[in-house]
Amino acid sequence: MTDENLATSASRTRTHPRRTDALSALMTEDWAATQPDWGFNRDAIELAAVRRRELAAQFPDTVLIIPSGSAKVRSNDVTYVFRPHTGFAHLTGLGVRSDPDSALVLAGGEAVLFQREPMGPGTEAFYLDGAGEYWTGRRPSMAELQTALNVPVRPIEGLVEYLTGVGRSVQVVPNVAPAVDRLLAAGAVNVDEAGSDALATALDEMRLTKTLWEVGEMQKAVDVSIRGFADVVQALPKAVSVSRGERVVEWAFLGRARIEANDIGYGSTAAAGENATTLHWDACDGLVRANDLVLLDAGAELETLYTADITRTMPVSGRFSDVQRLVYQAVLDAADAAIAAAVVGRPFQDPHDAAVTVLAERLEEWGILPVTAAESLSDDGQQHRRWMPHATSHHLGLDVHDCAGSRPENYRGATIRPNMVFTVEPGLYFQADDLSVPAEFRGIGVRIEDDIVATEDGPVNLSAGLPRTIAEIEEWMHPLLERGRALLSTATA
Ligand code: GLY
Ligand code: MN
Ligand code: MN
């Protein structure tokens, strides 16, 4: 187990000042002991302890390793901001306080967190290593982390020795941390591959229902996002005034997410006009024209890493045109039908079926479907998917597409259970060159996405506070656009 086995982070390859005895003597002494508030989330940590016990009970007689992941290289010696593996976050409660190259180990009733020793004041790595705390800021000591988690915290270099001592079959979440995989391989640890896949599945399936605390976190993420959407409307006059107006939309939301939360939970789609018909429009560099619709799919992510996932499609002018109104209302009716079907005890697919039924009927009514709605909805039809190609719902939580590794029978084939949280996001997308639709429909893309929690008392829309109906949207936008115009004229005066 050499340091090369652990060296994944690009920062560790950076060259920093040459060591001298004189500098070392000066740099390793006279640093005050600091006791900052590290921002650990007590609720998240306590909940994680409960989950660890649940998971360990599913895998008796094995040792489970859940790595936090490695710093990912963007290019050369530049890494992305570290984001821990979701299973690690779920089972530690550390959220953004997680470090790369850590591994949570569960052996029966015992949990141990292995991680890199902090390169703090008093160590030479403090200033000689690019990841040292002189460069990157102070981190909690292992003792502080141990106290916060109430779990033993040990140096990652001791992982193999610990596993050898426990002497049980080892399962490690695959494809998360090359550094940990290399460490296990170098230590000749025998990893149970099939069991490891089962562990990855179990981690995702554990999150299929949320606790009330988690739902509360998601409500907070939604509430920040709602304020972000208002910022976007206020920024629309500026968006219209520049050549890459979609960037203004993207930036306005990002600003709110970064200021009030941790970040965005996924790359936003900010798409005006015909760009809204491209599902994965991530360039976000197009024009925003006064008569366009603008589609924003964006969600704020908290420090606990719970995220929102919301889409609204809004008229840049503040008023929908007749054809925009027609398409928007169809999608809204589909969304309402889907939410009404998000009922405990019904199949998870029911909201999707309800949404596409409404959309197929509307496409038939408009003369766009080449067959009847019923024919299109049949298994061997499906022509409506030319204009509504995606699923209506996915689970939401720590990941935007939460629980994606669940077995199909526990996800799309499952029954809706209380405290499942999922999106409802129907859309209609008429691409600009789609000759199969009347000319006035071409270039219109509409999606409405809300975050729903299923309860015994019926579906609750966490994002209901963000206007959805045509009248609500127009009324909500009016003063925000006024303010945006006033700000723009002050800025350009
Ligand atoms: N924002 C990605 C999605 O809606 O699924
Ligand atoms: Mn979504
Ligand atoms: Mn979305």
Structure described in brief:
The chain has helices spanning 3-6, 21-27, 42-58, 86-92, 125-128, 133-136, 142-149, 159-166, 178-186, 193-205, 212-241, 245-260, 322-340, 350-365, 373-377, 470-492; strands at residues 62-67, 73-75, 78-79, 103-107, 110-115, 153-155, 169-172, 263-264, 269-272, 293-298, 300-301, 310-315, 421-424, 427-430, 444-447, 450-455, 458-461. With 493 residues, it is an alpha+beta fold. The chain folds into 2 domains: 3-205, Creatinase/prolidase N-terminal domain (Creatine Amidinohydrolase, Chain A, domain 1, 3-Layer(aba) Sandwich), CATH 3.40.350.10; 212-492, Creatinase/methionine aminopeptidase superfamily (Creatine Amidinohydrolase, Alpha-Beta Complex), CATH 3.90.230.
Strand residue percentage: 5-15%
Q: How would a textbook summarize the main sheet?
A: 5 strands, mixed
CATH-scheme architecture of the largest domain: Alpha-Beta Complex
| CATH fold label of the largest domain | Creatine Amidinohydrolase
Care to count the β-strands? 17
Ligand catalogue: glycine, manganese (II) ion
In angstroms, what is the radius of gyration?
26 Å
CATH superfamily of the largest domain, by name, is Creatinase/methionine aminopeptidase superfamily
Percent of residues in helices comes to 25-40%
Provide the low-confidence segments as ranges. 1-13
Principal-axes shape call: globular
* Total number of helices: 16
The termini sit apart by 65 Å
Q: Count structural domains.
A: 2
Helix-strand makeup class: alpha+beta
CATH class of the largest domain: Alpha Beta
